[in-house]
Amino acid sequence: MKSEHLELLVTREMPFGKYKGRLIADLPGQYLNWFAREGFPSGEIGQLLALMQELDHNGLSSLLDPLRKR
After folding, report:
1. How far apart are CA 8 and CA 35, in angstroms?
2. What is the pLDDT, as a whole number, of residue 6?
3. Are 32 and 48 in contact (CB under 8 A)?
4. pLDDT above 70 covers what percent of the chain?
5. Are 50 and 38 in contact (CB under 8 A)?
6. Total domain count, the chain
7. Helices (H), 1-70
8. pTM
9. What is the per-residue pLDDT across 1-34, written as a single tens digit (0 to 9) for each?
10. Which domain holds residue 24?
11. What is the Cα–Cα distance from 70 to 58, expressed in whole angstroms?
């Protein structure tokens, strides 16, 4: 994990699907878990979704709060 990836979680929007336009950090846990079961997309978006799923699954989403306040 790179620190700039955490910044991207609170600035990058989901580019497709049911939650298109929503910040990756704001995606619901069940949606992230679906990707974990079915497979994350390739590329940067897949890496960000996997990171957000890890944070959400382990109850660490609050680590993003200071980044949201910027």
Report:
1. 18
2. 93
3. no
4. 97
5. no
6. 1
7. 3-9, 29-38, 43-57, 65-68
8. 0.92
9. 678 899 999 999 999 999 999 999 999 999 999 9
10. 3-68
11. 24
